[in-house]
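Action item from last week, closing it out:
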Amino acid sequence: MNILSKLTSWFNSGIPWVWLNAAAVSVSLIMVFGLLGLIAYNGLGHFWPASLMEAELVDGQNKTVLIGEIREIKTVPAQQIRDSGIELPKETQWVNRLLIKQGNRDIYGLDFRRVLERDVMNIQYPKELVVIERREWGNLYGRLIGLKENDQIIQVDEPYNEALSRLETVLELHQQAKNISVNDIGAINYNIEKLRLKEKKLHLEHYSIAADLLSQKRLHIEEQRQSLNQTFIQLQTKIQTLNEKMSSDVILIRLASDQTIEVPLENIVQIYKPNDMSTVQKITHYLHQFWSFISDEPREANTEGGIFPAIFGTVLMVIIMSVMVTPLGVIAAIYLHEYATQGTLVRIIRIAVNNLAGVPSIVYGVFGLGFFVYFIGGSIDDLFYPEASPAPVYGTPGLLWASITLALLTLPVVIITTEEGLSRIPSAIREGSLALGATKIETLWHTVLPMVTPAMFTGLILAVARAAGEVAPLMLVGVVKLAPALALDSNYPFLHLERKFMHLGFHIYDVGFQSPNVEAARPLVYATALLLVLVIIILNFTAIVVRNRLREKYKGLEG
């Protein structure tokens, strides 16, 4: 009886619930950090230069030479192998199966190959094996045996070093050609399209313009077009000259099958010997690969290259959304708490706001597509861009509508947190300000709003965390697999809100579930997911730092 009373007293003291709560928090933290660790391990490990093996592959009586990277060693039930038609001894219960990246997709058809460990013989790691990362068809594995210049074999002592030297020059030429094509020619095409629309607008308004003025404007447009065309021809000539310089050098690669192929240097991103690298060289290569992943554009259906457009689109969309949602949410919360007469209508509005916070995001996407894109965007096109018809300008999914849709999605969170912050401010502060002769708006602007700023930033943090990871509504209102141009560039008006954009969340979905090369895409999914988490953490951390400073500033006035 004494023990029972002690247990009852212990439970009534609340200590078990404190320990239970601490255990739940600990388990949650372990799961979160474990998940982040799993993502980081599988994603960041992709950039490390894996050793390149050369081995004999035995298939019955046939032997072939295999060159590639061992990506995975997996133990599988022997019966699963027998079911696939491969004979194994009866006493065998488990077998090891290797996943080997053999590369050379244009020759073998597949990047990856699964073989049994028992069939791989005489594994070696020759230092002369090279990895050639190409702009198309993925990696190429083999031995670099020579170079050609203008179809003539070059006699050099070290073909590998000579290839690296020439590749550096080719990469510089390629970057020059890319800058001309993207920046200069892109600007010309943009201006030519503006002239076309301007000319079409004159055609639509010709009845309201004097004939001589109309003729003068058309002549001016034609002069501008001719000037742009002349510049375009000059730039095309420059690009053609650069391409001719790049196409003169070719390397000779001997494959595992003793077949020799020619690879133009203009189609190569980098060449390296992973088996001949020191630890410092591998670390340098790793950092270079990671930076390229962050700063480059995607290639090969998003399974190779970088993800800079997706990072840029995600951050830009979140910033625009934050600029939209914060003022609207704060104004709505101020009206509901400070000005609206508290009654049945205000209670219904608060219930509606709380319910909106739980609406599935895809519903917002459908609403954004129907109302913002088709109705508002279509009306804007009819009023201000009739010359662009039938091609839509704002009547199609884009950055603006995606930002507004997510602002609407996160608006309830900002309203609720801001109103809670307003309710925590003592009424004595408002009364004291009014007693000193300040008006209600002055009290609100100079006294209440500065004190409620931490709550506003709390709402903004929650809004950013949710909006940055949303995918479903964005698929309807602006996100695409590959955007031809960034929404921010050097062409007036610089920020093009009507353009479609890439997003890290959609990029993860696309690479993970729509990629034709699943094994190649898997590490990129982890790496992109890790970057998405880091982007959200950075955005939230910035808001948290500002919020904490403001909270410390007005700490003495709260409560």
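Closing note: The chain has three domains: 53-125, 147-277, 312-557.
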